[in-house]
């Protein structure tokens, strides 16, 4: 199954491809939650195991078209489910990835959204898993490197079923930002992302609320400018301290 | 397809299970070569993709019975082919691996035989792959740790198709030792492995060559004892130097 979201009237935004690998997607509350949390931007969402057969040409076209590619899956034995590996082995032919020196994936971003039933502290030496999530992502990071893609910091979701409502709301925002916010995740990029969203929200308000909405947006912009100044000042002070 | 080898009349030897993952085994010259190189010891060889369906009970029984488990595969995108992951996701149920605190795999050895078309020097930072083979094995090493298995140093076979005849002969011996020699790969364990093999060979000689055969075996044993003495002396000298 493929879901295509497109925000109307917005040009020049990034296209994100979310490839979900899960053998029983309908039974996964976390995957259903993430699906409902998809931002209203240019996002193509595809369930890998949901394709009856993998259409290599279509999959490669999707990859070519995307600016950011997200692989999203539960961690099974320290890796993605077999379905994603099958997708890799089938779709990512050598000719496609680095044949003829065309490198069609070069410059695109590769991000990983991984869910696990284990807590965060398990993933460290001495922890229950005795290995970091970053270390077990080595094969995918190596793939990104080979394809000349930019590897994004992994987005882990620990023990989704134990999350309280406020944590879930935070997760929605963080997840949306991971899918569509400009990288790196700096204060400036974060603010820009929120400002973008705010102005889109204001545009959708009914006429009688437009003025209030625009006022809020303008205050947000002022605060942003003020914050930028403070950040610059702080950077200058720090620089002097380093001398 | 499953192949069971058993050396007759030898008791107390180790049982090795070789699980081969390759989507087109018949077309793989390296896998065919390794299959023909299997030692005449207690070795069970199975082609994962060759099973029409994975019989979980049978697979788990095989694992329980083995002392050393070898996963053998070509490196596809820095990991095993999808078939092996499917096997992991299906056969290695949580209940089996660490349910009820029985840990049926605890203490067994896990070894990896991996073939790659890239040269050895590609697998290092700055090399063509920019990552070590050891690093990309992190998910399998973590699995071994979780199952309380002993992780053996990986056995890599680089660019099999370029190997000359003497290198292939060396590969046969090294591969057989990796499958059945006692670990670690020390001088003593290596000698023991060869001695064991030599005496088995002598037993199979025709009657008229038995005397010569036994003479060779006895010389080998004498040399071994002599070598052991020299090794001890050398160790003593080194110890004094460290003072």
TrEMBL record, chains A, B:
Q: Which residues form the Flavodoxin-like fold domain?
A: 14-169
Q: Which keywords describe this protein according to UniProt?
A: Oxidoreductase
User: Can you name one GO molecular function term for this protein?
Assistant: FMN binding
- Superkingdom, according to UniProt? Bacteria
Keyword Oxidoreductase attributed: yes
Q: What InterPro entries does this protein's entry cite?
A: Flavodoxin_fold (IPR003680), Flavoprotein-like_sf (IPR029039), KefG/KefF (IPR046980)
The record's Gene3D superfamilies line, in alphabetical order, gives: 3.40.50.360
Pfam families, A to Z: Flavodoxin_2
Query: Which PANTHER family does this UniProt record tie to the protein?
Result: GLUTATHIONE-REGULATED POTASSIUM-EFFLUX SYSTEM ANCILLARY PROTEIN KEFG (PTHR47307)
| Name under which the protein is recorded | NADPH-quinone reductase (Modulator of drug activity B)
Protein's organism: Levilactobacillus parabrevis ATCC 53295
């Amino acid at each position: 199954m493929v879901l295509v979201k497109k925000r109307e009237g917005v040009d020049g935004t990034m296209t994100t491809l979310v490839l979900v690998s899960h053998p029983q997607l309908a039974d996964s509350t976390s995957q259903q939650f993430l699906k409902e949390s998809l931002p209203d931007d240019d996002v193509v969402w595809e369930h890998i195991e949901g394709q009856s057969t993998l259409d290599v040409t279509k999959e490669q076209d999707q990859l070519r078209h995307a600016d950011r590619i997200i692989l999203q899956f539960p961690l099974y034995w320290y890796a993605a489910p077999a379905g994603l590996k099958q997708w890799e082995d089938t779709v990512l032919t050598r000719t496609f990835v680095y044949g003829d020196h065309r490198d069609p994936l070069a410059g695109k971003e590769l991000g990983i959204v991984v869910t696990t039933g284990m807590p965060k502290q398990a993933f460290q030496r001495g922890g229950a898993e005795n290995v970091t999530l970053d270390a077990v992502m080595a094969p995918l990071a190596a793939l990104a490197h080979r394809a000349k893609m930019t590897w994004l910091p992994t987005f882990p979701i620990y023990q989704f079923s134990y999350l309280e409502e406020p944590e879930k709301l935070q997760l929605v925002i963080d997840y949306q930002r991971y899918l569509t916010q400009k990288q790196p995740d700096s204060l400036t990029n974060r603010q820009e992302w929120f400002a973008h969203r705010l102005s889109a929200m204001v545009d959708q308000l009914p006429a009688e609320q437009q003025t209030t909405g625009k006022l809020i947006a303008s205050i947000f912009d002022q605060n942003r400018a003020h914050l930028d100044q403070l950040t610059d000042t702080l950077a200058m002070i720090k620089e002097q301290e380093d001398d």
